[in-house]
Amino acid sequence: MPLHDLEKTLAARVSGFEEAAILRMSRKARKLRAQGVDIVSMTIGEPDFDTPEHIRKAACAAMDEGWTHYAPIPGQVELRAALARKLGAENGLSYTADEIVVTNGAKQAITNAIFSLVEDGDEVILLAPFWVAYEGVIRMAGGTPVVLSSSFESNYKVSATQIAAAMSERTKLVIINSPSNPSGIVLSATDLRALANVIRAHPRAMVLSDEIYEYIVFDGHKAGSIGALPGMKPRTVTVNGFSKGFAMTGWRLGYAAAPPALARAMAKMQGAFTAGANAFVQRAAIAALEGPRDAVAAMREAYEARRKLMMTWLTAIPGLRVHAPQGAFYVFPDVSAALAAARRRGIAHDDTGLCDWLLERHHVATVPGSAFGTPGAIRLSFAASTEELKKGLERFATGLEELQG
Ligand SMILES: Cc1ncc(COP(=O)(O)O)c(C=O)c1O
To answer: Considering the entire predicted model, what is its pTM?
Structure first.
């Protein structure tokens, strides 16, 4: 018998899942490149640096030493112990190895946490602008994302009062991400305390704190951990990983630290889905955590210099409003003036159309703010070389000036 229409046979949880705008833009940029067009991509969410040498060497040595077999599902105990030491020393968090689950990237840590906590009818609060991947995973788990918006004027921060007003007995989880992708905001100690007060007032609510950009901070900002605040450890799952700070995106290594019952649930899920992270990569991660940090510091300094370059160009564009990012490697300018001009001239009617036009006419790829729940802004990544950034900024500025000229 012939197979029934495969599209209709797919589970609703995947067929209802939309391609992320970031992937769509990257795909369009790749297609134009394949046609020979010189495209500058400012969409990239990964360090352009190679993984530091001592970490690469540790992975090779681990393979030679025979670390090529399955690892324990929640991760090697030596790595979990090293992570417990790191969380204590750097984040003021007190976890035992048993409360830590090593994952295939922070993405899997987030998926494990959401799937372990959220079910049909549960609400998860997202603070826009938010990293787009959270939303799809919440929906796949049967949850309902409740998106709270912010504005350029509020520095793209959602207030604790807004969060308190949106919470109910249906709220299972609040997701925070500081430093933020895409806004670059770092939540202050006061912000975290106010948020902790809101969470503590709800018996069922937990918080997922995505701290993946913690090492990429500027102007003396320090990203705090909400789980370290009084009474918050049992209410928090702290997610982090090696992708950004250690330039290890392709290694796929992350982790979650959580109260024991949740850590056990996450390990159980992981046992069913992936059986955990790669064994020799886990050995290399110990070297990353416990070896020299010069390369991490040097990368941070390079991002800081690039941020300066971005701000010099962006603040000179008429009508563009932009905050200097406090962390991560993205700038998130408000482009509403350019968008109004684009609408008047029939060039684009929303930020997605504006990004498409910038790509097709000026050959610079960017990501629309609507991809992060915040239409009217655009995300520009500065995880690229200075030459590439200058080229991209020039095209971006020329495009916006052409629109408004
Ligand atoms: C906010 C945020 N969290 C998590 C991740 C995923 O990191 P990983 O590569 O460890 O899965 C990303 C990657 O872009 C991110 O921007």
So the answer is: 0.96
